[in-house]
Design brief:
By secondary structure, the protein is of the alpha+beta class. The protein has two helices and six strands, in the order E-E-E-E-E-E-H-H. The chain has one domain: START domain (Alpha-D-Glucose-1,6-Bisphosphate, Chain A, domain 4, 2-Layer Sandwich), CATH 3.30.530.20. The two termini are 19 Å apart.
Length: 114
């Protein structure tokens, strides 16, 4: 997916609730933790950087003969970061808006607009 390179567990344990994942984003190595895990239904990844915490929740639901995947991103901020939160949310929306299309393309399907 654009903006994220090489999402992988930081240890050799089975992937599930509490698993820490490492990835590269915007030329920086970062970590995220699986904070919700319902196999084949939902996964939430939470990352913290400074006073900002972002949680991305991906949900999978059957929809007639297809599968619907949704993404909800929640950003919280503490301290001086609270003042910057509106700009951070805007930047997240802008940089992450193509995630589901990227996933769909990686899986060999047409774009979500089809």
């Amino acid at each position: 997916m654009s903006g994220v390179d090489g999402l992988r567990p930081t240890d050799n344990k089975e992937i599930g609730l509490g698993t820490r994942l490492q990835f590269t984003s915007r030329d920086s190595v970062r970590e995220s933790e699986i904070t919700e895990w319902k196999p084949k239904k939902r996964v939430a990844l939470t990352s913290a950087y400074g006073g900002v915490t972002a949680t991305y929740t991906y949900s999978v639901e059957p929809d007639d003969d297809e599968t619907r995947i949704s993404l909800v991103a929640v950003c919280t901020a503490t301290g001086a970061w609270k003042l910057l939160r509106p700009g951070l949310v805007w930047a997240m929306k802008r940089s992450d808006s193509g995630q589901l299309n990227d996933l769909r393309t990686a899986m060999g399907h047409a774009s979500a607009e089809d």
